[in-house]
Amino acid sequence: MLRQNFLNRIPKFAQQLGFQKFSFSSSGFLLSGHNKWSKIKHKKAENDRSKSLRIGKLSQAIALAVRENGPNPCNNVRLAAYLEEAKKFSLTKAVIENAIKKGSGIGNKDAQTLNEVIYESMHPSGVGIIVETITDNRSRTAAFVKNVLRKHNASLSDVQYLFDKKGKLELNAPKEYTEDVFDKVVEDAIEAGADDIYEQKFESEDEKTEDEGDFVALTKTNNLSKATEYFRKKGYHITDASISYVPQPGNAVEPSEDHNEELQDLIEKLCDLDDVVDVYTNIKQRYMD
């Protein structure tokens, strides 16, 4: 039944993406006027200048995930996602083990003071923003986040209804897939338990960030670990695996050029805050076009 349901959905989203069923005739997101948003979608709280900052945030996130749901990534989807990201940043075994011990309360009670706090905001451009933070001082974090929002004309507002919380995988297909690639990726996605699979089009490799893959698979959050393991065993290169707030297709927006600079600066300033882990927006993403 799952296979049949998935296949029945393919023509619908294939049409939305602009290609025939199982083909490569799709047009990419980066059409004229679109490329200015290629970096403003879900933005991890990181940049070239602050890799060490991201490592510190990951350590805190791992500790909190362990505190809330235990140290076994097989039973803790959030921990599994953070450990997957830790690999990309080459976190040492010692750093990861210390974070897990901290979350387990072994020799360190600091993790008991950590809390996840989510802030929701709306920008005048119509862009909804979700800010995920991990903090040991709610008042401090609230003051910093609200200050950044205020300076960029954004206000606190309920926006989660614009998003679905999903497991999200960015993938590159195995090198041996040289023909009928999308057909094979779809079949693998079905076996992995994905809800949807999308192809992304890039005009050149230079457009791709290190987190972006040729395909995006969306799955239920509790299936992320299983799907990640399945794709890895099949020989896929996984460029990113996360639990994400994904904009619902009907609620994704493309802001006007007038808001470009302010939105970019807003997201970067939020990501620069010590307590911020992730920032999500409902700006239309590449794979949605």
TrEMBL record:
Belongs to the TACO1 family. PANTHER family: TRANSLATIONAL ACTIVATOR OF CYTOCHROME C OXIDASE 1. One of its GO terms (cellular component) is mitochondrion. It holds the Pfam family TACO1_YebC_N. InterPro entries: Integrase-like_N (IPR017856), TACO1_YebC-like_2nd/3rd_dom (IPR048300), TACO1_YebC_N (IPR049083), Transcrip_reg_TACO1-like (IPR002876), Transcrip_reg_TACO1-like_dom3 (IPR026564), YebC-like (IPR029072). Residues 35-105 form the TACO1/YebC-like N-terminal domain. This is DNA binding protein. HAMAP family: Transcrip_reg_TACO1. It comes from Schizosaccharomyces japonicus (strain yFS275 / FY16936) (Fission yeast). Residues 115-283 form the TACO1/YebC-like second and third domain. The gene is tac1. It is found in: Mitochondrion.
